[in-house]
């Protein structure tokens, strides 16, 4: 499953959406591209960018963890020294910085200042940033953007960095957990085990049977999120009563667990701070992540002149792209499917785990 995730998220999404000659309004034919990787981790996508259809001129990697940045630097130096598939390779220039791409303004980094970053993007700019722009052709966030949805402040800080860095026509690509799956599983749990109360104290419907989260209390991206209301003290549970309000599902490959209250209707409002724990076999320990309610994210991105171009779950990406001349052979080398476009070699549980994610692409208008 990890092999398929790498093949689909890294190679396919980068191959598909690293801009071609026709995709950038400000790019001239033959121009190399400039890439900003927010949440670059240990540099796992470096070789994927080296193999991108457009040559990369500059790669800037950002990650809050010093140890990850050190490892990314080491991987880059190793990549420069080693030939790729037996041939010498011209490797792009790369710089790495330990920085929080959600809570800190990336315009303080010298190389980003030099390339160009527009501080006037977003709803507070009065439209000043609409015709301005940064200097990067692509901003990428693979398997990390969901951490920004811990709070509205972080989510907006992330989008300000993304939109400010992109030139007009530039692309914002990434992979995140699919909120449609999270919502469906939460709603399914409440239907199976009986109707409870939503996290705001309501049961998710008003007197007419309409959902309160989705109608009366719908989220406005132009207004700050309200602080959660304090809950009234609850009486102690009697012996024999179920005390655990958690929602949990998964299989032998992955597990997801919401430790506290969840909305009965599966609609996450307000769209920030919905923590769950995710475990993937042989990849990560159980770590806290945050739901990215898709429509709320899309609406928020529009505030920063980012327009949706593409969104698909991993299984659909695989179905559409497995015949790609780059992805197809790569999936065979990684053991995802048999040789000569053979059958899939991964189990249904592995496919279910991979389908927890979806890929997206926005472009700067």
TrEMBL record:
Free-text function comment from the UniProt entry: Responsible for methylating the 5'-cap structure of mRNAs.
Presence of the UniProt keyword Nucleus in the record: yes
Family: Belongs to the class I-like SAM-binding methyltransferase superfamily. mRNA cap 0 methyltransferase family.
Catalytic activity: a 5'-end (5'-triphosphoguanosine)-ribonucleoside in mRNA + S-adenosyl-L-methionine = a 5'-end (N(7)-methyl 5'-triphosphoguanosine)-ribonucleoside in mRNA + S-adenosyl-L-homocysteine
A single GO cellular-component term on record: P-TEFb-cap methyltransferase complex
Primary localization: nucleus
Domain MRNA cap 0 methyltransferase: from-to ranges: 1-365
Top-level taxonomy: Eukaryota, Fungi, Dikarya, Ascomycota, Pezizomycotina
Superkingdom of source: Eukaryota
Signal peptide interval: none
Annotated protein name in UniProt: mRNA cap guanine-N(7) methyltransferase
């Amino acid at each position: 499953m990890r092999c398929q995730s790498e093949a689909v998220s890294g190679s396919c999404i980068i191959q598909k959406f690293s801009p071609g000659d026709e995709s950038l309004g400000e790019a001239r034919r033959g121009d190399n591209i400039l890439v900003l990787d927010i949440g670059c981790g240990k540099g796992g996508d470096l070789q994927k960018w080296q193999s991108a259809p457009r040559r990369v001129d500059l790669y800037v990697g950002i990650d809050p963890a010093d140890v990850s940045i050190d490892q990314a630097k080491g991987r880059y130096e190793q990549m420069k020294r080693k030939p790729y598939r037996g041939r010498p390779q011209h490797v792009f220039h790369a710089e790495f910085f330990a920085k929080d791409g959600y809570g800190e303004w990336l315009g303080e980094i010298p190389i980003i200042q030099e390339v160009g970053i527009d501080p006037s993007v977003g709803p507070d700019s009065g439209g000043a940033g609409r015709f301005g722009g940064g200097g990067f052709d692509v901003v990428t966030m693979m398997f990390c953007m969901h951490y920004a949805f811990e709070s509205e402040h972080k989510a907006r800080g992330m989008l300000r960095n993304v939109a400010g860095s992109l030139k007009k026509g530039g692309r914002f690509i990434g992979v995140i957990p699919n909120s449609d799956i999270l919502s469906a599983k939460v709603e399914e749990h409440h239907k199976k085990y009986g109707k409870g109360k939503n996290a705001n104290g309501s049961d998710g419907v008003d007197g007419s049977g309409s959902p309160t989260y989705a109608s009366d209390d719908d989220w406005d991206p132009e207004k700050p999120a309200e602080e959660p209301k304090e809950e009234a003290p609850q009486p102690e549970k009697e012996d024999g009563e179920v005390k655990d309000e958690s929602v949990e599902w998964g299989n032998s490959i992955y597990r997801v667990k919401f430790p506290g209250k969840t909305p009965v209707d599966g609609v996450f409002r307000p769209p920030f701070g919905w923590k769950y724990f995710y475990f993937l076999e042989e990849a990560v320990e159980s770590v806290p992540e945050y739901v990215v309610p898709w429509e709320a994210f899309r609406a928020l991105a529009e505030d920063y002149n980012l327009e949706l171009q593409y969104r698909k779950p991993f299984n659909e990406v695989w179905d559409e792209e497995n015949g790609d001349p780059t992805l197809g052979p790569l999936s065979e080398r990684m053991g995802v499917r048999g040789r000569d476009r053979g059958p899939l070699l991964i189990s249904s549980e592995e496919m279910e785990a991979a389908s927890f994610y979806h890929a997206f692409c926005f472009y700067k208008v």
